[in-house]
Amino acid sequence: MTPDEFRSHAHHLVDWMADYLENVEAHPAKAQVAPGEVLAKLPACPPARGERFEAIFSDFRSAIMPGMTHWQHPLFCAYFPANSSPPSVLAEMLMATLGAQCMLWETSPAATELEQRCMEWLRGMIGLPDAFEGVIQDTASTSTLAALLSARERATGYGANLTGLGGGAPFTVYTSAEGHSSIDKAVRISGFGSDNLRRVATDANLAMLPEALDEVIRSDLAAGLRPLAVVATFGTTSSTAVDPLAAIARVARRHGLWLHVDAAYAGSALILPEARPLAAGLEQADSLVFNPHKWLFTNFDCSAYFVRDREALIRTFEILPEYLKTKHQAVVNNYRDWGVPLGRRFRALKLWFVIRSYGVEGLQAMVRSHIEWAREFRSWVEAAPAFEVMAPSPFGLVCFRHVRPGLDDEALNRLNAEILDRVNRTGDLYITHTKLRGRYALRLVISQTTVTLDHVRKAWEIIRAVAGSVQA
Predict the structure, then answer these.
(1) Has residue 316 been placed in a domain?
(2) Over the stretch 17-69, which tens digit does the pLDDT of each residue have?
(3) For residues 389 and 400, is the Cβ–Cβ distance under 8 A?
(4) Residue 254 lies in domain
(5) What's the whole-model pTM score?
């Protein structure tokens, strides 16, 4: 493709992109294809000769687009969002054009120093003390893994990286019964073993019980095990429950454990001063993560990981072969030493574009509106005799279910599963589910970039209509 051809095609694509963002509601929120349907449209063998871009883009529209779930649809209310925004998309275009691999300061000084400054901005925006330093990881899963590996190395005097875990007593890690599955994965990868992950009991609001945590730790100590780390959650995935961070921090400090806080979704709410009391004790953590790609309108992937002891992080991951040594390494951040990957994308650029385009006040207004609309949706559910709320709703998620007289929980589980399936088959709304204490709950997340209160009303209308049409 020549530069002139690139220019022509790029203009065409930008027009298509702008039209897509403007008319995304014309597409189904959830892809309406059967398994294998897209695959059947794709040739079994690659082309021997290059094809014209017009043909490639035509196939994109006819074969690929029907199989896409539209995460930027305002009625994408499933999982948690992977939010985008126009300034972030523009930054992604520039990132792709530059094609920079930003592993070292030397390989792109601007990328390193912009990341440093953006993380300082984020630290101030969510009210963290200056003692924390940040780095952009790809996902919260990677950030949690970094936390547990750092905890392991600190506990072994940085010896596990050299000699392995050896034959000593196993390390144990603690999280809530509602903790994310990425914690299980990090425990496995870190070499601790799934059998040494403790799921701590929760209270009526699905938050970790500090006294239960202390009891489990003491039991493990009495059994000769080595308690290592606690992963507390600020906004669990199922229900956005908030663990009592201050009390958990006291338990962790009493036993010398690393405290990591998973705030992947709800951490963005901390840009609101009124939300920060919910996170009292966060400042006592050793590390925490939240994802601007979930609720700060920055394209996936962009995960903000903060750590109190940067030297523990760097000593855990730093490997310095001759070919990566540079004359400035003592006076700059080389972020390839702050996590698992050597190669790094220029993720800070899109975060910079977003923060500057919306401003802190603009971002606060958007997040605040989502929380207010979730409260309004919750009030509609509470006022409807055929529905009930299943958990507290401190952020943009409401968990609820349809109820009918005479049906036990097992029957209600089946009924709500059928409602979920039918809602999603409309294509007009996409929601997901969870189970809370064994009871099937519908999850509606109000956090999409372009969602409005009118969209929330439409979602409620769809849910009520479908629920009314389903037989027990």
Answers:
(1) yes
(2) 999 999 999 999 999 999 999 999 999 999 999 999 999 999 999 999 999 99
(3) yes
(4) 100-345
(5) 0.94
